[in-house]
Amino acid sequence: MSVLVLVEHDGATIKDATLATVTAAAKLGEVHALVAGSDAAAQAAAKIAGLAKVYSANSPALEHQLAEAVAPVVVKLMADHDAFVVPATTTGKNIAPRVAALLDVMQVSDVLSVEGPDTFTRPIYAGNAIATVKSNDAKKVLTVRTTAFEKAAADGGSAAVENVDAAGDPGTSSFVGLEASKSERPELTSAKVIVSGGRAFGSSEQFHALLDPLADKLGAAVGASRAAVDAGYAPNDYQVGQTGKIVAPEVYVAIGISGAIQHLAGMKDSKTIVAINKDEEAPIFQVADIGLVGDLFKIVPELTEKL
Amino acid sequence: MKVLVAVKRVIDYNVKPRVKMDGSGVDLMNVKMSMNPFDEIAVEEAIRLKEKGTVTEIVAVSIGPAKAQETLRTALAMGADRAILVQTDEEVEPLGVAKILAKIAEGEQPQLVILGKQAIDDDNNATGQMLAALLGWPQGTFASKIELGGDATVTREVDGGLETVKLKLPAVVTTDLRLNEPRYASLPNIMKAKSKPLETKSPGDYGVDVARRLETLKVVEPAKRQAGVKVGSVDELVGKLKALGVAK
């Protein structure tokens, strides 16, 4: 079986999500990668361990990975591949279903494990249930939960890079701009330590005044519960949970977060979970390895000072 | 301009799903069902566009059992003009739903189709993108802002921040949480909705085969995490964090 992986990149470097996707794809067969819209990223992708071939497609329309332009390139390559595998990031989730429909295939979303050539596990109901599904389509289209797979080595490979036709730009969509969230801190999905805040912070000012110094001390990324995002304390790209980002850091520190199902779905695979909450009955303590009951407005400054 | 919105009847988001003992799925007997939260946002957005004067008619569509009528009545009570129920007791996958919606779009000729980005039961996040593919239309997924002019300018929630794309109409848009806060239907509007037109069809009327491509072999509860220890003071917590190697 030959498998096509879509490489996620920022125009120069490969995103970590790609490396976990390569590991998942390798369980199905020989892995080829498609880099759309960047020569530099294609060169970087060729070094990923375990890749047999890298396809590079270039055109101005591909530069921003617009689904309308990327999907036809993938569909053409899928004539010679049995599966298309992408990370379940916003880029992957935007493109994969478009490809699946063009191939008349039902996508398997958020794959947690590969049980066989056509059998996979995936979370449903916000991770409250895990389904084992068998795909009866001739070709497979999968998005992969990247925290569920080890990352392939970014170095050591030497795959040949083959230029492929960029297909035509359908011209129906165009990129206007990206307002990148600016942060000196590590990215949420690749951070080793995350400190995350909930609605208990009471305001955006207190959220940042208390959490930012603690994050700086720990070299951590800052996350937030959906309740905190909905209340406007933190921007949406801080959101950890079913409808936000899925993370699995070494240490996850949940502060003033009660532990709603939808939040747990996004962080319960973290190696160690630390919870600070004034309510000792809060569900977050049922999943936490280390818990501290108390007032976050006293605990967080003291913790920051003593670290 | 006509807008089509797709709505799904799902388990209410406040209900904790229970996996059936026999591993065949999640128990939905006597469980409160509601409109998928992301679809509520889709309906709300269509209504706001109508209130701005850019949209003239809102057609709500649901594919599901007879009881999905209630979900459509909710959409009508919120402000949709008419509804189409494509009735089936089968669980239709996103690919089948997209095929039916594509047929309806061909007949209704909307300039915009708005859908929730994902349903909170099967969590696929696929129907909107599939519909756009089948129609050959552009897609604005995970939208937090929609501006309609000659084109649709859509701001998207992406991993690295906010991306803005311009889409030629007709287009498909899927909603993210921050797009708007859906309204509650008022009692007079709930009463009025009862007399709004609701047409019932079947997948066969659209010539769509909705046979499943994915077979569910089993459904289990996720592995449970064990609760750990509680510490009594910040000093103890600092000690634990040091032991983990994350603090000096």
Characterise this structure.
Chain A is of the alpha/beta class and 307 residues long. Chain A is built from 8 helices and 16 strands. In chain A, strand 6 and strand 7 (119-124) form a beta hairpin. The mean pLDDT of chain A is 94. With 248 residues, chain B is an alpha/beta fold. Chain B is built from 6 helices and 13 strands. Chain B has helices at 37-51, 68-78, 94-108, 127-135, 187-193, 234-243; strands at residues 2-6, 9-11, 33-35, 57-64, 82-87, 112-116, 139-148, 151-158, 161-168, 171-175, 198-201, 214-220, 229-231. Chain B has a 9-stranded mixed sheet, with helices on both faces. Chain B is globular, with a radius of gyration of 21 Å. The mean pLDDT of chain B is 95. At the A-B interface, helix 3, helix 4, strand 5, strand 7 and strand 8 of A face helix 3, helix 4, strand 7, strand 8 and strand 9 of B. Strand 11 of chain A pairs antiparallel with strand 9 (161-168) of chain B.
